[in-house]
Amino acid sequence: MRIAWFTHRYYPCVGGAENYGRAIVRRFVANGHAVDVLTSNAHDLWYFTDQRRRRVEEPSETQVDGARVRRFEVRHRPLQRYVGRLLSYAPHWPTQCRADSFMPILPGIEQVRGNYDAVFAVGFPYTVFSYGALRTAQDAGAPLILTPFLHLATPGDPVRKYYTKPHQIRLLACADVVVVQTSLEADVVRNWGIADARILTLGMAVEHKEVTGGDRQTLRQKYQIPVGRPVVGHLATLDPNKGSNDLVRAVARLNEARPLEDSIHLVMAGPSSPCFERFLAEYPGGKPSWLTLLGPLPLDQRADFFAAIDLFSMPSRTDSFGIVFLEAWANGLPVVAADAGGVPEVVRHEETGLLVPFGDLDRLSQSIAGLLNDPARARQLGEAGRKLVDHGYTWDDRYATLLARTEQAIANPRQSAPGWFRRQAG
């Protein structure tokens, strides 16, 4: 097969959608399929609208794991965010797919053409990529497989609106296959009129060899974390929506009641959002001594990160699944997460971790303290998580399932899809 894979970022960028994409693409290539990855040159998501942020310093076309990767250059315009926001209200579906305050300007992404057998697109709310994939699929007469990663938060949460807009629902209606991660996501998509036959509940997996077997002392010694200190780890884009700010506040509360020489150490890995950077800049007294920021964490350092910590926490409201929980469990670590989005289907409360309401600092700090003060219980939860991911949470399994559905879509094309597209895009 010849495959096009549209995504907002790609390796060396890391993240849930990015790691999923690389894991699947690598397996397509290993099984003899030709893959073109169509992406941006943004390394930092905020580069989409701010040229001061980080970009990928590589040629526009490279080979990654045997796949051809084309990185379309993000363009920046004066008043881009304001103009994008205004355009998003235009009563024109293609414009809604292309424009918003956070959407990148990517000339050429809609002109990708090729004799593709299948076209994939990953990651809402950046629908400029999914719309480009739709045009490519329509031109090639190939099935479109969308993986939106809907961050559904909890009912009433304002973040939900960024993943449930009419133009996004229309894009999913154009797809031959909609790949979701949990039954929550499947139910939402089903309620939008997407037939069960076009919904694939896939779930995520973990690359065990990449995230396990690390050395406990490497990271602790490098960042001079005192011997014997309990360490809480957080790996995500550092942002209030990921619970990063709440986690700092929760650990601060706990450390107020502990002697300085026995304070809990918090190690946070991942790129920082502007919101988190402002939060730290305004933090009373400056960045606390018990907080270590690693920045973006290369894949070859993830094993040492997980080996160094005693507990993993990402109390996020914006995750459709949460691959990092699987990575923590692969290392036998207990996790503390927020009871929001698709996470409650991944983290089983009191079985493989603890769930707290998003934004509840009392419950978050109590849960962290409870596990650090009860190592036996922490081990029990972590080992339950390890047993879970040791059976069935492999990318080989996920790839086999996705490949079978892709081949089915190629063999049984939806006859109505091209006409539907022309009516909506005209």
Q: Percent of residues in beta strands?
A: 15-25%
Helix content: 25-40%
* Alpha plus pi helix count: 16
Order of helices and strands: EHEEEHHEHEHEHEHHEHEHEHEHEEHHHH
- What does the average pLDDT come to? 93
> What is the CATH architecture term of the largest domain?
3-Layer(aba) Sandwich
What is the CA-based Rg, rounded?
22 Å
Write a compact overview of the structure shown.
This protein is α/β, with parallel strands linked by helices. 38% of the residues lie in helices and 15% in strands. The chain contains 16 helices and 14 strands.
Question: Notable features of this structure?
Answer:
Rossmann fold; disordered C terminus; alpha/beta; 2 domains; 6-stranded parallel β-sheet; globular; 426 residues; hexosyltransferase activity; Glyco_trans_4-like_N; transferase; Glyco_trans_1
Question: If you had to describe this structure to a student in words, what would you say it looks like?
Answer:
InterPro entries: Glyco_trans_1, Glyco_trans_4-like_N, Glycosyltransferase_grp1. This is Glycosyltransferase. Residues 15-202 form the Glycosyltransferase subfamily 4-like N-terminal domain. Keywords: Transferase. The chain has 426 residues and is of the alpha/beta class. The chain has helices at 16-30, 80-87, 93-98, 127-140, 166-174, 183-191, 208-211, 216-222, 244-256, 274-281, 302-308, 323-330, 361-372, 375-389, 395-411, 417-425, and strands at residues 2-7, 34-40, 61-64, 67-72, 118-122, 144-147, 177-180, 199-201, 231-235, 265-269, 291-295, 311-314, 335-338, 353-356. The strands form two sheets. It has an eight-stranded mixed beta sheet, with helices on both faces. It has a six-stranded parallel beta sheet with strand order 11-10-9-12-13-14, with helices on both faces. Helix 4 links the parallel strand 5 and strand 6. Helix 1 packs across helix 15 (395-411), helix 8 (216-222) crosses helix 11 and helix 9 (244-256) crosses helix 13 (361-372). It is globular, with a radius of gyration of 22 Å.
